[in-house]
Each structure stands twice: as structure tokens, then as C-alpha cells.
Specification:
Elements: E1 3-6, E2 9-12, H1 40-46, H2 49-58, E3 63-64, H3 65-71, H4 77-90, E4 93-98, E5 104-109, H5 111-143
Antiparallel strand pairs: 1-2, 3-5, 4-5
Helix pairs in contact: 2-5
Length: about 140
């Protein structure tokens, strides 16, 4: 396997070779670049724009639905619900219900989800730092038509 460096981390390139036997299960190899690799479905959820914003919003601790919706500008209640359920399914977000009156529900990043904070914050920071250049390139490109 080839070693590469991404933001100072040593990352091993992995190749998905299809289903593995129980003996090999501890060393599963994945490659999201292959159309047939099942890990690509996780990438679809994780690379979603709403995931970037939700993870950024939850990085400082648990939040209630309404607070989270207020922090993530432009997201509808329906889309936020769908996104939180998808992230819960992937093990990125945990939903905690409290038996109180009125009922209280909070969402927080799991240990797995906290591992996404660095990359998501970096992505957000990069977009914000480079958006003026991106806008200029868009205008130049659109003017060619």
C-alpha cells in the first residue's frame, strides 16, 4: 500500500477487493474511488454540505434541534431531520432524549464524529479564505459563454 501525507497524517491507500472472509474482517480494505466499493455510500453522507455545517455546529457540544437549526442558516426542519438521521445511522451523531416535560432532545457528535471536526473545520476555513478567488473564477468562466 502506498503511503501518502494529508495534513501531516500518514494515510495508507486502501483497495477494496470485495467481500472478505471472517479471518480477514479485522483488516478490511476500502477504496471510495471504486464505484463498487460500499464505503462510497458513507462518503456521500459525509461529503454533504449539510454535514460540514452540522459537524461545525456540534463541535462545541450537544445542541437541541431548534438551536442547531438556528445556527445552520438556510436549512429547513425537514432537511435537518433527514441529515441528523443519516449522521446518526453512520455513527457520526448521537441523539439523546430526556424524559422531561416538555420533552428535550439533544444531538451531539460521537467519538467517530469528533474525528471529523478537524477536516470539516479545515474545509470551512478553506472555503471562507478562498471564496473571493472562487467568485472571480466563476465570473470569468461565466463570461466565456
Amino acid at each position: 500500500m502506498a503511503d501518502t501525507t494529508a495534513q501531516g497524517l500518514n494515510v495508507k491507500a486502501r483497495r477494496y477487493t470485495g467481500p472478505v472472509s471472517e479471518k480477514q474482517a479485522g483488516e478490511q480494505l476500502w477504496d471510495v474511488m471504486l464505484a463498487t466499493c460500499p464505503s462510497r455510500s458513507a462518503l456521500v453522507t459525509i461529503a454533504n454540505k449539510w454535514t460540514v455545517l452540522v459537524v461545525n455546529s456540534l463541535q462545541d457540544g450537544p445542541q437541541r434541534f431548534g438551536d442547531l437549526r438556528g445556527e445552520v442558516g438556510g436549512i429547513s426542519a425537514k432537511v435537518l431531520t433527514e441529515q441528523l438521521r443519516a449522521l446518526e445511522r453512520e455513527g457520526i451523531v448521537a441523539r439523546q432524549s430526556y424524559a422531561e416535560s416538555p420533552p428535550r432532545v439533544e444531538y451531539e457528535l460521537t467519538e467517530l464524529g469528533r474525528g471529523l471536526v478537524g477536516p470539516m473545520v479545515s474545509l470551512r476555513t478553506w472555503v471562507e479564505a478562498n471564496f473571493a478567488d472562487i467568485q472571480q473564477h466563476r465570473q470569468t468562466f461565466d463570461a466565456q459563454d
